[in-house]
């Protein structure tokens, strides 16, 4: 009685593909895969080569016929065939779901302190200002900074439950409104003056010339943005319009033209807080710094209670005016936390003001805004944020490995101010104070009056808004 061997089931053909550093090419790729790669990056494997590991060598000639007898019939019946009449030739598809993994490791013998870096990353590392000695001492922090620089463009206490993503989307949809009656703002606004230009667009001040409207004769700010960014702009408009607070720049309306999305905002005649930051002389005293930070914290407290994060707090995005008002602006990076995303991971913001956990691509929450505002307080006191003169990648590295920043000359500032900063600039976000906690700090109990601060703005900036 003869026994029969059944056809195999659940059969998988495992390919061993490896990178040959000496040859500068892949070894072991099927020809169909190799054809999809640039020329010179594939090298055929010599099946008789003794350099291959035993389990990778081709079967001996005496075994070849036997293997064919066992698997031949099944392969011919199961494998897809080419249409050219070669009915016994199996077709190997092109690869899919390919993941390119890099094997990078510390290496003190190289100029960068790493081996295995892609060429572009290696060149960036060489110009980063991070020495091999620093890499050796803090390899993960250096790699985090490098990865952030190359790939970057990532609440525990609240008074309301986290909303669902559906609820957030519904509220954003309700808040989004375009005035379709205006297709070109130049027809109903006059006296345009350019205030600034950035990556997100150009900002002008202009006078509303629409008679019979509540803003007739008032100066407003018009932000012209590329229509290609409309999806992101819709989020910015919705986030800002939902943040109706005395310390947030008011969203008024928005228009769509053939080329631009134009966002109409409340006009702040003093411009950016940056104009009050000077490295050569101290413009703001402690009471004025305390006033600005208190106003900013009031806005953040409101936002954070609604589970929203600004994510780009810095002096450029805090506006002031001649009456002493202080308001947060530019909600281009703002986002909302939901029950499904209690923390965020996307990396956004401006490097020198970024919190350590954001640079390291860790999960983060509203506390990133607190760190950034603490850096802004130092900026007001010293004229610029810490590490401003370092290359960006080195600054990112140092933010994660250095101790939390402090004032350069702590003795020239009050103990209360120094302590206040120490509660904001805590590297562990869980130990960092919240906006509500900071508003109770003694440093904010004796701030400048709005009129006094407005007089300072007017004296230093003059016609800053025009």
UniProtKB/TrEMBL annotation:
SMART domains: PBD, S_TKc. Residues 40-86 are annotated as: Disordered. It catalyses: L-threonyl-[protein] + ATP = O-phospho-L-threonyl-[protein] + ADP + H(+); L-seryl-[protein] + ATP = O-phospho-L-seryl-[protein] + ADP + H(+). InterPro entries: CRIB_dom (IPR000095), CRIB_dom_sf (IPR036936), Kinase-like_dom_sf (IPR011009), PAK3-like (IPR051931), Prot_kinase_dom (IPR000719), Protein_kinase_ATP_BS (IPR017441). Its cofactor is Mg(2+). Keywords: ATP-binding, Magnesium, Metal-binding, Nucleotide-binding, Transferase. Residues 60-69 have a biased composition (Basic and acidic residues). Pfam families: PBD, Pkinase. ATP binds at residue 223. Residues 189-444 form the Protein kinase domain. GO terms for molecular function: ATP binding; metal ion binding; protein serine/threonine kinase activity. The keyword Magnesium applies. Belongs to the protein kinase superfamily. STE Ser/Thr protein kinase family. STE20 subfamily. This is Protein kinase domain-containing protein. It comes from Aureoumbra lagunensis.
